[in-house]
Specification:
single chain, mainly alpha, subunit c (vma5p) of the yeast v-atpase, domain 2, 2 domains, about 0% strand
Amino acid sequence: MQVFDQETGGWELGTVLRVEKETGFGPHVAGQDPLAFVKRFDIDPLNRYMQAVSEVGANINNRTRHQRISLSLIKMIISEERTRSEDLRVDESLHGLSGQALAKCHKCLKTISKVVMCLEQHITTYIEYIGYLKDRSERLSGVLLALLTHEDAAASIGFAAASVELAAAAKRDGSSMKTIAVMTMVFLLANFPAALFAVPFLKWDWGSGKTVQDNFWVYWAFVLPTTAAVLLVWVSITCRAWIREKAAEVFKFQIARCNFVRL
């Protein structure tokens, strides 16, 4: 009993007191304002507190089970001693013992019953104590659960606010990209005629004869392949996942075809 009592005071009660001190929820000294201890908590410490308090509840249930088993044994010993006291002329054949051995057994049982009566009171008191401690840990667990729910809701609200800000920033970025696209389009409209008039393959002078020169094909021979190459690189980069998928399908089809031909 002393070992159980010391372990309960050192671990279960110590854990509950420590969590109550950290959270500010629990029995307070007269004159103290419980609301003065209320503060905001992080989710990680609350999870650790919740785990510790839950472990306290499990340990208390296990200790209660052991004490109830011990109490049942003690009650059985007391009941057996009372039965023997009421009838001292017990049939020896029922136990297979001689009268002298049965008398010694009854004497020992009587001595033990005097001790276990005191032990029964200790166990009953201990069960009441750990019952109170269990109720205290359950209430503290409810408080921790409420705090966890509150912090989770606050985190969800913060996440929603961050999402709104991100959407607003994305909208501003989209507007900026639209502005850049419009400005680029305006400058390209003026840039194309300027580049066209500046090409040396075209003669715009009045006295130069024909406007289009004989070597104008060189311009197209360079522009068209270059444009096609740029578009091909762009398509290969943007659609590389689709290209890999189609290539894998073709590869599997070729393997299946080769296997079929072998058969």
